[in-house]
Amino acid sequence: KASTYQPGSLARFPEISHGVSKDHVVAPGYEADILIRWGDPVTADAPAFVPGKADPDAQEKQFGYNNDFLGFVPLNEAGTRGLLCVNHEFTSRSVMFPYDLRFNSPKELAETEMAAHGGTIIEIAQQSDGRWVTVQDSTYNRRITARSTAMDISGPAAGHPRMQTSADPAGTRVIGTLNNCAGGITPYNSYLMAEENFHFYFRGKLDDSDRLWRTAGDLEAACAAGDATHPEARNYCRYGVAMGGGYDWGRHVDRFDINKEPNEANRFGWVVEVDPLDPTSTPVKRTALGRFKHEGAESITNRDGRLVIYMGDDQRFDYLYRFVTDGTVNETDRAANFGLLDTGVLSVAKFSEDGTVTWMPLVHGTGPLTAENGFDSQADVMIETRRAADLLGATPMDRPEDVEPNPKTGKVYVALTNNSKRGPAQRDAVHDRAPNYWGLIVEMTPPDGDHAADSFSWDILVKGGDPSVPVTGAQFAEGTSANGWFACPDNLAVDPSGRLWVTTDQGGGWAQISGSADGVWCVGTEGEDRGISAMFYRVPAGAEMCGPCFTPTGDTLFVAVQHPGTDGALAFDEHARASDFEDPMTRWPDFNEATPPRPSVVAIRKEGGGPIG
Ligand code: FEO
Ligand code: CA
Ligand code: CA
Ligand code: CA
């Protein structure tokens, strides 16, 4: 029953309309079921969710907060049993816990937040009626957390003095993973968790100021003036470490204070590889893939057998990266592939007006990446990937999010979500709108399907925003309906027939960007369908749309509804209330006054079965 649609074609379904609702909305003829919510049991011995409590040990066994990346690893031929791999990116304290608990901020609160970060691996099964359920007693089920999961460090930076801490003098083992946004499933079914905004979690001083309170702007000024004196100041200034971000973990846990443990922040900002098929395996931080605010890590086996991983560094004016392994994917011996990501070449992209993308290798000893510029080894190049890429003259992008290769067409799609800070003088061929509130999708084409080639060609697929409002400069192809346009593309997925699906994250300012909720769109990429977009699903009020993931047959689309009830709200206390944006705040999906809104995974299927779209 696999889909027979052409690769790159536009899916056909009755479109939904732009809007904002307390509930989610899916295209007519489709069903959207809640699969798992924050606090639901993951391990067999997990206690039931109790709203309003901070219980770190319970949270270690329950589904974490803010589900983002979703990956599916099939356990049978039919794809009706599998492991769902889920990232838990961050926590939203003001929605999760009642005011008294937040005000007193006990250690249990920070520890519960640490336990709500990381990942979940849980077995799911499709019942005879088509619905998916979690298998709670499965031995595959595990939580990976920022609080307790030990991880190995491998690759060029492993063991380097800058990776050493008092708890880990060898610099090879770290507790936990932070801010896992998107990720990837490799062709050999390992689960890649990308560490994105790791800087939020660290506190401390980068300079000698004894002022009790300094704003992020003060710190930025100290960094710019060269007044920062911390031993990792140049590095931490570039990544924004200790410049504020809201978490107070460093008050309770010393390693999150950069004055008590100066190197700990060097141990985050990596891609973590997990073997979901071995629940006792130790996750590994693969430092050969560089250290930056990794959005995701989607991969494809190149025609010569090497693995190619595409990665965005999601910050305004940061870069697009590619990693090509030295070795090749072993299709007969799965275990032989664990280690593939430790040797290879990381490159950063430079986009030219003539329509080419050049991949510039980040290799110690070449070009400016020498001791003269503070790079004594490949470890230094990886720990300070951004500064190395600055020196090579990489193209500053409008926040690169997901980067998705399409195995059916050989093309690669880059979601550039937005950049409110790009000024008119900073326009270039890729980024011709300044400021860019609406984002765009760039298409890259490797020559002869060679994803390891030194240069690709590039083109723009669509420019986000409402095309009926000329100031947006939005561009969708003719045939896109009044509901078909979107703003702020974030995650991308390619369905089994090779069609592109896009999810959006307009952030807290969504009311000004589109006035409509985030959601899922299908975008045609080939022939007459190219650049036409159609709206399939939208999230409940205040949420962001993450994690689009198809089962191998294409008959189920899993999506992750992140932080319902928060974006667009000025505050959220014990009671849901309308915000100044007339946002009908929601208690989705429980709609129970005693339960806060909960991030949840949703399974979407066609009524009566068959491929989505
Ligand atoms: Fe966590 Fe770049 O979105
Ligand atoms: Ca994202
Ligand atoms: Ca993706
Ligand atoms: Ca985003």
UniProtKB/TrEMBL annotation:
Pfam families: PhoX. Residues 583-613 are annotated as: Disordered. PROSITE patterns: TAT (PS51318). InterPro entries: PhoX, TAT_signal. Residues 604-613 have a biased composition (Basic and acidic residues). SUPFAM superfamilies: Calcium-dependent phosphotriesterase. PANTHER family: DUF839 DOMAIN-CONTAINING PROTEIN, SLR8030 PROTEIN. This is DUF839 domain-containing protein. It comes from Pyruvatibacter mobilis.
